[in-house]
Amino acid sequence: MPNDRILNELTDEELIKRFQETNDLEAYQILVKRYKDPLMNFVYRFVGDRDVCSDIVQDTMIKFYLNKDSYREFAKFSTWIYTIAGNLAKNELKRRRRRSILSITNSDEDKQIQVEDKSFHLPDRITDSKIKNDYIQKALMKIKPVYRQMVILRDIQGLSYEEISEITNVSLGTVKSRINRGRNQLQKLLKNIYNE
Amino acid sequence: MEVNRYNDEEQKYSKLIEDLRQLPRIKADDNFEYVLMTRIKNGNFGNANQSERMQFGLIRFLAPTAVVITVIILFVLFLPGEQNYEDPLRSEPQVIVSELNHQSAPLTQKKESPKENELQSQEDNYTDKIEGQEGNVHNYPILPGRSVELDDYIAGKNYKRSNLLQGSVVKAGDEIPEFDGFFVRRNPNPEMIRKYRKMIDSLKKAADSSQLQKELK
Hints:
The structure holds 2 protein chains of 2 kinds.
Chain A: H1 2-9, H2 12-22, H3 25-47, H4 50-66, H5 77-102, H6 108-111, H7 128-142, H8 145-156, H9 161-168, H10 172-189, H11 191-194
Chain B: H1 8-12, H2 14-21, H3 32-42, H4 52-78, H5 97-109, H6 114-131, H7 150-155, H8 161-166, H9 190-216
């Protein structure tokens, strides 16, 4: 137990260093515990599918486990793990697009954007805010993935512009302009809500 | 993490940003870690173990290859057959019969005096000797019907202005030409003209001297 407390007090970078050097699974598990929920939220908002998002986060953690040595100390652990998750999420979107192009029986049901499952919420009645959240999620899924990723990282995950720039590997100016374009597109899509 | 929201752009979208921030947080399943650790212990890495680069590298290689192969197949299928293709430069033009008759008639009806024939044969012998080194002049595709004999031209005999204007006509060997469209333009060699002149002068002198000798006798 005292060892656990000591490990929990360590920073992300210290934990991964420990994991790299001693292959300490406890350090790995603490990092998984810290990042599983933020990554789930990020991937879900980006992909819009609960089951797929769970698989992507699992794969992210396995990639982290397998490629722990590819992490370099000069980068923040959070940006590194977000980059892995973001790349896997983008690959999933590409795979879906390819599947939808190749699919002969491409029904309208497949095209529908999957919204958040009821089971994730408290089983209370559907309120206005629930409908609004669904609309926001649908609108998020309609904007370009490059803008969507940036808006999610900035406005939902609360990362700084610098961190987003590091995760997406684009310049700070591009990050800012893409975030603004994404917000602008979102606002246009949700004009019924924001014109009230 | 504290987010600075005192930016002009962020002020513009403040309501939207606030709503995005208020979106319900999605959490991982309770058994997330258990499933993950079981997978790691069992070495069941699934898709995460596959190299993405390998997959996409193969796709990137296959896609252009497929395009190139398709283009080659289409090219082979729709390439016009050589037997159907008519090269306008190689195909022989249609013979205009009326033109042929018009050209062949003067050749057959041409009657030369014995003296002219003799002179012509002498001249031919000379030209054969001179041109022998460079090539046979008679093999040149010159149409006699439209050519000008240099001797006659200098002597002022058989002068046809139209022939001079037209120049020499291309002729296919000794046969009557099937094609009468192009004129060969050759710049006269000054050296050759000088040689011919000397030759003619010497012939004239020889003829004059023989006449003088005959008269003296």
